[in-house]
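User: For my dataset I need records formatted as: sequence, then structure tokens, nothing else. Please produce one.
Assistant:
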Amino acid sequence: MSFNPEEYTEKALEALKGAMEKATEQSNADVYPAHMLQSLWSQDDSYLKRIIDRVGVQPIEFERAINRAVVKLPTQDPAPAQPSMNRSMYEIFTQAKKEMQTMGDSLVAVDTLLAAMTYEKSVSEIMRNAGVDSKQFREAIKKARGSRKVDSKSAEANFDALSKYSIDMIKQVESGKLDPVIGRDEEIRQVVRVLCRRNKSNPILAGPPGTGKTAIVEGLAQRIVACDVPQTLQTHLFSLDMGALVAGAKYRGEFEERLKSVLKEVTECEGGAILFIDEIHLVLGAGKTDGAMDAANLLKPMLARGEIRVIGATTDAEYQKYVEKDAAFERRFQKINVSEPSVQDTISILRGLKERYENHHGVRVLDSALVAAAQLSDRYVTSRRLPDKAADGFEPAISTTPSLLGSGP
């Protein structure tokens, strides 16, 4: 049995090298599939972890199942300087090449390697012990790949781009990570109306910083989960992480490829998807280098053809400075003005969040404190906007209370 490194991607070779190191560390004479799983699990931006998350298994359970399997492997003292490949590893390599040909790839990538591993007896046992169904696992790999082909050594960089470079707001609502949205019903209704349009169905929220533009989109996500929107909006809602998208994209075209992968996955998303881009003015010129397109030029054709629905958010000043100057980009969007809420509306917002603050800090918050926070911040803090400045004004007082009660005189 032979192994040709030229047939594998950089990430797959990195995983193999890591497996050999794991075997050496644990005094194992051979490299086993369990070592390979350990190596794939510990990789930066682990593809295996993302697939485990997709199949709904607790990561800690899977990690424990791998570690239990590794502990049972035969050891040798002293450990060999260079561990050998166990026969089961060569069987995986053979199966991986079959998977590669089935997928129409030029190289064996991490996902084809993982798919091949599920057919191996010891890996199947690890998965069973962790509560992972092998068939479901392979289906998750197939969905994460989509229609892309592996034709370069760095192909994995664009795998599962949506989960790497965006946040699933529907999942955040379902896991209770988002605060309730109060007092923004009219703006949420406007967003829903724009999204339901046949043409120009892309709302852009413009208003002063701290007025709750992102909260409006969070409110939309909550309504989607509650099935309180038209059927056409019963879909996924992703928040694009521009920072992660741009970070580390130092080579020409790298940013473009990342964004293309995200947009492709959004359009291919089962049941459809809406993309939220906070600070959307950053899209104009983001990733632009000599001979490369910026993010806006990648978005424009898709917006024009109606292939993707986007919600943007920016401040009034940045809308005028950046968005209005690009007429072709601006005309794809319908502007929704977000004004600062009144003091009375701010009090209602704080009352809605009161229980969350009480549970988090372990104190009781008086209603008079909420009223004072809204009124005093409106009167004395002129450089910022409600409700942000009111929340920032009274939370430090809440967080200080437990420490004062718990400390000595």
